[in-house]
Write a structure and sequence with these properties.
- The chain contains 22 helices and 16 strands.
- Nicotinamide-adenine-dinucleotide binds next to helix 14 and strand 11.
Length: 589
């Protein structure tokens, strides 16, 4: 199937520079005599222009060339006032391949030694040899094609490529999900038949969504929906918009949702979805058409009793309202329960906004009880000051903790006497960062992670606590607000050093718990007060925490392995209870 791939900003810069060598760019032309090959000229100039080491420039060139070699179609976005996505003609794409070859380390098409002689003639000649006159190939046409191509590349805002080559990300998150399942399966002595089933999703859909863009062109976006396992109930999981999204990533996320809903004891399975698109490049109207198109494409396979999506990276409450509306139009009456994370005035739940962080706070309270830490005055450092980080800092402050450091992508601030989370947020809203907050000292994100404190809440990105940082962590408790902030190697080190890690599938499960409450309220068509939502969240997540803690003590494993064991066991038991030998003929007794 065709996959859509964008050139990164750096790769786009490289293509433009290639084009510059063929435009009458006096600066480059004057310098050109000092280089021996086109490859060397391009890499060196790029490295100087962008201030990066030549070996990094070489990597950018290599990845860009690979994408162009594998391209079936290439689209170039023109700047204002046109701002259209223009397809390269077959001739232009062929010429781009010749250009690509010309700048490669070992050119195969361009004649040797052509660099110092007339570059345009050399390119036209190579084009003529390889694509012949059928490709529009006498010297005149080739020169004209090159001129048009160079013009398009020089002005391009971005370049989109359609390729038949399967897209993969490294490391592949599905591989990680399989490894975690293997560990839990081994510890549980899991039935091999069940293990086989749990390695794969129950169902996966690929949909192609045509969208009329603001410029009048049609673009087709690829979307996915994976329903991993529904042994415990309807599948549930967010929708992610990302330019590099792959089916394997969505599958891994759907597996993790299966374990997250199971560990918290919700009567739900796990799913996930998403669209390979760059929402930052799209207007709101385009995003609405895309979201509604996706809703129509998957409408037959979702529903309040089958599969219930929610927001995830780069999707919002407003988008959930569009999906709900589109689905309701198809069904014929308002079906609020088809998605969660909606605005409160169209079936959203009170308390959903802060739910993830409130869950983090409740799990910290339980961990503190278990470790005999007095939270009154306990010191807390929070990495990331977005939705999860800010509310976690605020709620922990409200129960008496002292927030001594917080950070965002620009750096962190620290004050051993304590920070006021609300005032820090006001400062961030005004200036765009927590940095430079009054009465505080600047610290880096690394310093924040390694601070002397009782509780560390990583609430930004994955892979923040690594093998190197793990040995320097001084916190007694690490509560994973973010997904995957501690690497598996770091996890082992922390466990051996006696640091108590509350794993992501438990610590940040408050979001999906309140999403479940939203479903319940939608089905009853009766809505709870915020206090009721909070009380039920506390009850659910506290019970989950204590179930995981018992499992961890019983098997002498860390909290993460215990959480996976508990989740996999609950799903496996449900599969066996529902289907018995039909699901696993190996089962005896
Ligand atoms: P967000 O975009 O609102 O906030 C992210 C914050 O991290 C921002 O303050 C950003 O500046 C900061 N950040 C980015 N790079 C950083 C870096 N290198 N160092 C320090 N800070 C950095 O996102 P969010 O909704 O708060 O989500 C944060 C994490 O929590 C993600 O891993 C997400 O998957 C996970 N999560 C969120 C929810 C939820 O309900 N929002 C639920 C479960 C898990």
């Amino acid at each position: 199937m065709l996959n859509s791939v964008e050139l990164s900003a750096r790769e786009l810069g490289m293509v433009k520079l290639m084009a510059d060598f063929f435009a009458e760019n006096p600066e480059l032309t004057a310098k050109i005599e000092s280089y021996t090959t086109a490859h060397y000229a391009l890499v060196t100039t790029y490295s100087e222009n962008f201030g990066i080491p030549p070996e990094d420039a070489w990597k950018v060139l290599e990845s860009m060339q690979k994408k162009i070699d594998e391209a079936e179609y290439v689209y170039v976005k023109a700047p204002e006032p046109l701002k259209k996505l223009l397809p390269l003609s077959r001739d232009e794409l062929n010429m781009l391949r010749v250009l690509n070859d010309y700048f490669s380390e070992n050119p195969k098409l361009a004649p040797a030694g052509s660099f110092l002689s007339n570059r345009t003639d050399a390119l036209a000649e190579a084009y003529h040899w390889f694509y012949g006159s059928n490709g529009g190939g006498n010297g005149e046409v080739a020169r004209e094609t090159l001129k048009n191509l160079v013009e398009k590349l020089q002005t391009a805002i971005f370049i989109n490529i359609e390729t038949l080559t399967p897209v993969i990300t490294t490391p592949n998150p599905y591989e990680a999900a399989l490894k975690q399942l293997d560990i839990a399966a081994q510890k549980l002595n899991l039935n091999p038949g069940i293990h086989e089933i749990l390695k794969r999703p129950m169902r996966a859909f690929i949909v192609n969504i045509p969208v009329v863009m603001d410029d009048g062109n049609i673009r087709v976006f690829t979307g996915y929906r994976v329903q991993y396992n529904d042994a415990l109930g309807a599948t549930k999981g967010g929708i992610r918009y990302h330019p590099e999204l792959t089916l394997d990533e969505v599958t891994a996320l759907a597996a993790w949702m299966t374990w997250k809903t199971a560990v918290t004891g919700l009567p739900l399975g796990g799913g996930k979805g998403g669209i390979r698109c760059n929402p930052k490049e799209m207007s709101k109207a385009e995003l609405e058409r895309l979201t509604r198109g996706y809703a129509r494409a998957i409408a037959k396979f979702i529903g309040p009793f089958t599969d219930v999506p929610a927001p995830d990276v780069y999707t919002t409450a407003e988008m959930m309202a569009w999906i709900m509306d589109e689905y309701s139009e198809i069904i014929g009456y308002p079906v609020f329960g088809v998605v969660t994370g909606k605005p409160v005035n169209v079936g959203g739940s009170l308390g959903r906004n802060e739910a993830t962080s409130r869950g983090v706070m409740y799990t910290v309270v339980e961990a503190a009880k278990n470790l005999d830490i007095n939270l009154k005055g306990a010191t807390v450092a929070v990495q990331g000051y977005g939705n999860v980080g800010y509310h976690a800092a605020r709620l922990l402050h409200e129960i008496g903790c002292k927030i001594i450091a917080v950070s965002d992508s620009k750096g962190g601030v620290c004050n051993p006497e304590g920070l006021d989370p609300v005032k820090v947020l006001e400062h961030k809203d005004k200036t765009g960062s927590v940095v430079d907050y009054q009465e505080s000292k600047f610290i880096t994100n690394e310093q924040l992670l390694e601070m002397e404190c009782d509780i560390l809440v990583p609430a930004a990105l994955e892979n923040q606590v690594t093998e190197t940082t793990a040995t320097n962590i001084k916190a007694k408790v690490v509560a994973e607000g973010a997904n995957g902030p501690v690497t598996p190697e770091a996890d082992e080190i922390l466990f051996k050093r006696g640091v108590f890690v509350i794993p992501d599938i438990l610590a940040n499960s408050g979001g999906v718990i309140v999403s479940y409450f939203e479903q319940v309220q939608n089905q009853m068509n009766y809505y709870w007060t915020e206090e009721e939502v909070r009380a039920r969240l506390k009850d659910t997540i506290t019970r989950a925490f204590n179930d995981v803690l018992s499992m961890s003590k019983q098997h002498n494993v860390n909290m993460r392995t215990a959480a996976y064991m508990l989740a996999v066991k609950r799903v496996a038991d449900a599969m066996l209870a529902r289907k018995g030998k039909a699901v696993s003929p190996i089962v005896t007794g």
